[in-house]
Structures are given as C-alpha cells and as structure tokens.
C-alpha cells in the first residue's frame, strides 16, 4: 500500500511538472511531453484503482467478496465432480467389489458413502438412506468404511467388510445394527487401553445376532480382503479429497456432510 501511494505521488508530479522539465522548444519535445502525460495518467488511474478497490470491496459492497468466494467454490466443486465422475465410471466395480451393499445389489442407481460407525452425522444420514431404500428398489448404497476414529472405528469397519465375504445380506444386517445400536459406552471410554477390546467384543456380539460365523469373521477381519478394501477406501478418499464423514457420491455427484432425504431424492433424479 505504501509503494502504491508513493507511485501515485510520483505520477501526479510527472503529470504536473514533466512538461516543464522537458521544455517546449519543438515538435519532438511536444510529442515526448504527451507521452509522459499519458504515462502519468495511466499510473494515476492504476494507483487510484489499487487504493480504492479494497475499500470498495470491504466497505461499500462486501457482498462481491462473498459472490467471488461462492463462485470459486462452485468452480472447485465442478472440477471435483468431474474427477469423481471419471473415477467412478472407470472404477465402480472395484469400488463395490469388497464393500457391503445395502438395498438391491443390482439397482441402477448407486450411492457410495464414506462413513464411520462412531460418527453421529453418519448415523443420521444412515437413517435418511434407510428411508430411501425402503421406498425404492432401484437404489443401492455401497458402504465405504472410513476408519478414522481409531479403536472406535477399526473393529466395526473390519467386521462389516469381513461379513460380506460370508454373505452380503448378513453384512447389511451388521451395518444396520452398528448404525442403530450402541456398541460402546462412556464407561468404556474411560479405559482407553481396553477400549479396542471392548468395542470388538460388542461388534462380534452383533455379528452373531446377524447370523454370521463369528470365528471365521474374526479371522477374516485380519485378512487380505479387508486390508485391500480399507486401502481402497483411503486411496479413493485421498483422490476425492475426502477429509471427514459422511461423504456421499450419488450417481457420480459428490455431497459432503449429512444431507437430508429430500436432497438425496433430488440427486437421484439427475
């Protein structure tokens, strides 16, 4: 800002006194004087614009900044959706291969959701998705278990992926149980050293209730398929710049956050 003011002073001085310094003895000097005056005018206009613009944007019409920010965000979202559409079109099968699927597994409309069973917002959006699935048979939800909360997330994520190895419908039942029931208590949180063990015990209990072979499930939780799917979840999250949960991709369009039923339905229409 200081340099702009100094340049403005120099430009004004050049406009006022440039001719006197050059003199006025002939046509050549007159042409040079005009050029100097023109340069001074350009510099003055540029400096005034540079000084006035911040004031205008912050005091006179600050909504322009908001409009610019919104426009930039829309542009970034458009670019992200373009990348997501390309990735989903080319890699949908691998994204679904090891992941639990809710609803009609052969449905034409696909919703991918990056979710965490310990996330309250994920539980909320699960209820909205469950409502969609109960009303429509042309939608499937592919559950991408984004294990981001350590002991609270790890065993549930591994268990539902391992459950699909046995039976997708039983994996879906386990997802439902983990999303609608409490699998840890506040008392469990007090002893962090045993938290993972207690969470796992609750998860295996739910798995047994869902009709799964618990011994096989526990072995598969450390197996190649689960490791591959967790890597796929994290790899795609990095590619799509997913930093938290829930994050939905509905028919190749991205929706971060716990969006409501109405927005899910609108997205399915596109």
Characterise this structure:
With 270 residues, the protein is an alpha+beta fold. The protein folds into two domains: 2-61; 88-269, Glutaredoxin (3-Layer(aba) Sandwich). The protein has helices at residues 2-22, 27-60, 63-97, 120-135, 151-166, 168-180, 186-190, 192-209, 214-220, 224-239, 261-269; strands at 101-103, 109-115, 139-145, 247-250, 253-256. Strand 2 (109-115), helix 4 and strand 3 (139-145) form a beta-alpha-beta unit.
In short:
The protein is of the alpha+beta class and 270 residues long. Helices cover 70% and strands 9% of the residues.
CATH top level of the largest domain is Alpha Beta
Q: What is the tally of beta strands? A: 5
**Residue-averaged pLDDT, rounded?**
85
What are the low-pLDDT stretches, counting only 5+ consecutive residues below 50? none
Order of helices and strands: HHHEEHEHHHHHHEEH
Helix/strand/pairing category: alpha+beta
- Work out the strand percent: 5-15%
CATH superfamily of the largest domain: Glutaredoxin
At CATH level 2, the architecture of the largest domain is 3-Layer(aba) Sandwich
Shape: elongated
Helix proportion: over 70%
State the end-to-end CA separation: 49 Å
Quaternary structure type: single chain
- Output the number of helix runs: 11
Order the strands across the largest sheet as they lie in space. Answer: 1-3-2-4-5
Number of domains: 2
Say what the CATH topology of the largest domain is.
Glutaredoxin
Give the topology, please.
Elements: H1 2-22, H2 27-60, H3 63-97, E1 101-103, E2 109-115, H4 120-135, E3 139-145, H5 151-166, H6 168-180, H7 186-190, H8 192-209, H9 214-220, H10 224-239, E4 247-250, E5 253-256, H11 261-269
Parallel strand pairs: 2-3
Antiparallel strand pairs: 1-3, 2-4, 4-5
């Amino acid at each position: 800002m200081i340099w702009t003011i100094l340049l403005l002073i120099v430009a004004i001085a050049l406009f006022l006194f440039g001719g006197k310094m050059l003199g006025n003895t002939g046509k050549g000097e007159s042409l040079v004087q005009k050029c100097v005056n023109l340069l001074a005018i350009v510099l003055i206009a540029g400096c005034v614009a540079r000084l006035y613009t911040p004031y205008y944007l912050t005091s006179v019409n600050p909504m322009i900044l908001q409009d610019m920010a919104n426009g930039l965000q829309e542009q970034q979202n458009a670019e992200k959706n373009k990348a997501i559409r390309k990735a989903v079109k080319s890699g949908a099968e691998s994204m679904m291969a090891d992941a639990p699927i809710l609803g009609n597994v052969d449905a034409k409309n696909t919703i991918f959701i990056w979710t965490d069973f310990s996330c309250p917002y994920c539980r909320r959006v699960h209820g909205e998705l469950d409502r969609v699935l109960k009303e429509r048979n042309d939608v499937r939800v592919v559950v991408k278990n984004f294990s981001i909360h350590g002991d609270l997330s790890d065993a549930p994520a591994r268990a539902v992926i391992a459950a699909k190895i046995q039976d997708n419908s039983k994996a879906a039942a386990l997802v439902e149980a983990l999303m609608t029931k409490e699998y840890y208590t506040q008392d469990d949180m007090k002893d962090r050293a045993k938290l993972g063990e207690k969470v796992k015990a609750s998860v295996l209990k739910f798995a047994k209730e869902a009709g799964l072979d618990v011994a096989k499930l526990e072995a598969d939780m450390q197996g190649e398929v689960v490791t591959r799917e967790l890597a796929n979840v994290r790899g795609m999250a990095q590619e799509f710049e997913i930093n938290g949960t829930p994050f939905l991709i509905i028919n190749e369009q991205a929706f971060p956050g716990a969006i409501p039923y109405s927005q899910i339905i609108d997205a399915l229409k596109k």
